[in-house]
Design brief:
Chain lengths: 159, 171
Amino acid sequence: MWWQRLGGAAVGATILHTLGVPAGALLGAVAGSASVAATQPRADTVPRWVRLAAFATLGWLLASRVEPETLALLPDLALPFLLILVTLAVSTAASTVLLVRVAGWRTGTALLGSAPGGLAEMIALSAVSGDERELVAALHLVRLLVILVAVPALVPVIA
Amino acid sequence: MTGALELLALAALALAGGWLGWRLHLPGGPILGSLLVMAPVLLATDLSAEPPAPLQLAAFMIIGWLVGEGFDRDTRGSLIRGLVPITIAVAALTIIVAGLVWLLQALTPLEPIAALLVAPPGGLSQMVALSLSVDADPVVVATLQFARVLVVVVTVPLVLRALNGHGAQGR
């Protein structure tokens, strides 16, 4: 089964990257892997060492972009960080209340679905707290998909 | 120009850093571990080597594979069941994030594209991969996204515990 999802990811990544779509390898892999996974039951098919290698490569790539001038900018990030935290706290609270009051979701499920944390961390927390993992995962995945599609599309517009 | 042997040594170093970050159980641990090990090495030496292009593509593809496989049959059922509230929640978030992007551009020294990449609450690895793909201040994006995920991962369990305690008292 892992090879089907890997194959889907590879085909999707190759097509969108070749077409020159911004972040095409990432987006194409999401589409390819999702189209295969949608017909299959849940399974973590990406081996741990493969994830580790991919994340380590991202860290290496990130490190290659670090310059002394970049490091000097970091103290200036306090204000943006504060703005991000306040805004996302408000949006999390609003979304949680909306999902509880209007849709009747459990408070924990609504909070874990709305919290702007990592997908894996929120799903893990839902497993521990007994909240509905599937709804939490669905909300995070849709949010992530919207971001992954919208942001690269907006980059040329803003640039 | 970096030789093949140097690239192999750098790859081994990046893997070792990633493994260390993973063992420390931080959110985005392997990315952070690899970054913290590699950045001083690359800054202190004349090496300016990026991972080879095929390796970069493979890494982006694997991150995509990880996201895509979340859309399995079970999640698809939940998506259909919760379609309306999920759509409303994501639409509301999109409007709020658009406002945040505007605020960040108006009030802070962030470049417009960096503001676009630090505002949305995506996963750490996905947002880092996106910023690297479109070459938009990846270090700034990674710093702010990592800080956000860290705050959320620390605070949400506390809020959940407080809510559960409140619920238990109310029963």
